[in-house]
Q: What sequence folds into this?
């Protein structure tokens, strides 16, 4: 009974998280001027990364001082604090929907030929960009799975594996502001392509070094894990906010929330496929092969983005709709 209740609560948390992610993306897409959209999105992505560092550290402190159940209480308290801050600090005009004017009733009217053409055009843009950005999402999902497993296969202590993650995460945060500046000044491809290629190269290097330097001692094992992890962190840091920024870029102003739901659902398929690919590969091959496959897919995504993004987003600045 307790397990069933836990599953139900996790599903509620997952649904709430999706609503929160959609709401924040739609709000920022409207609130940020197009000329600084990428900087705003990457800064927001950097704040999320800070939370991903501080959260586990606070959780570890809670577990040291109390019990495992205290972590859930910590989650509830921080979620309640976030709710209060949104209610207090969100501009008053954003707390309720704007009145619907007669000229902006397209969403409530029956589907028309023009609406259908718009939907097909938006979906086409999303698919073109999503095919390239989904591998980045897959690499992000697989990273906390593959890196610890390969670290363990190299014989490293869990403490060293945690240190590698911490150093890599700090490296990412340093790139948040430069990434946004590059995107706003030189276009999305200037960041999205290096992000995908560097993450892919890091996974390929990790698979190679974990095979070549296995059973060569703890020092070389640490090098085999740290150097590729820093490369992956470099790519991931450059890609701070890239998924949210591209989602806004390919979505029209009117009805943006609905189109962003399409975008997030499409990328959610990539998140779902990532661990399934790792599981399928590890059933018949070592974890290093799963790392190499993740790297190859990410590099292929970068190559695709190099061709697709210039056709969808401008070379510098952003589209207003």
A:
């Amino acid at each position: 009974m307790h397990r069933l209740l836990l599953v139900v609560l996790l599903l509620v948390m997952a649904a709430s998280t999706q609503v929160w992610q959609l709401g924040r993306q739609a709000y920022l897409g409207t609130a940020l001027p197009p000329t600084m959209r990428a900087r705003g999105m990457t800064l927001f992505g950097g704040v999320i990364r800070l939370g991903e560092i501080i959260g586990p550290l606070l959780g570890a402190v809670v577990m040291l001082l109390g019990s495992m159940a205290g972590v859930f209480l910590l989650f509830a308290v921080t979620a309640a604090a976030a709710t209060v801050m949104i209610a207090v600090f969100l501009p008053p005009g954003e707390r309720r929907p704007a009145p619907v004017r007669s000229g902006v009733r397209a969403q409530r009217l029956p589907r028309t030929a023009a609406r259908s053409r718009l939907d097909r055009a938006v979906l086409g843009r999303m698919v073109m960009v999503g095919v390239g950005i989904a591998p980045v999402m897959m690499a992000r999902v697989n990273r906390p799975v593959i890196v610890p497993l390969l670290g363990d296969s190299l014989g490293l202590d869990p403490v060293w594996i945690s240190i590698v993650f911490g150093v890599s995460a700090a490296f990412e945060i340093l790139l948040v502001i430069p990434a946004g500046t590059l995107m706003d000044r030189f276009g999305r491809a200037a960041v999205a392509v290096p992000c995908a290629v560097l993450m892919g190269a890091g996974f390929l290097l990790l698979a190679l070094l974990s095979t070549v330097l296995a059973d060569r001692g703890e020092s070389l094992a640490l090098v085999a894990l740290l150097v590729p992890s820093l490369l992956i962190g470099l790519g991931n840091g450059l890609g701070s906010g890239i998924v949210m920024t591209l989602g806004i870029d390919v979505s029209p102003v009117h009805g943006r929330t609905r189109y962003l739901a399409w975008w997030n659902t499409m990328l959610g398929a990539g998140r779902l496929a990532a661990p399934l690919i790792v599981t399928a590969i590890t059933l018949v091959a070592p974890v290093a092969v799963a790392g190499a496959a993740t790297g190859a897919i990410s590099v292929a995504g970068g190559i695709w983005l190099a061709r697709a993004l210039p056709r969808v987003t401008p070379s510098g600045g952003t589209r207003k709709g």
Remarks:
- The domain at 2-86+116-311 is CATH 1.20.1250.20 (Growth Hormone; Chain: A;).
- The first helix runs from residue 2 to 31.
- The chain has one domain: 2-86+116-311.
- The two ends are 49 Å apart (CA to CA).
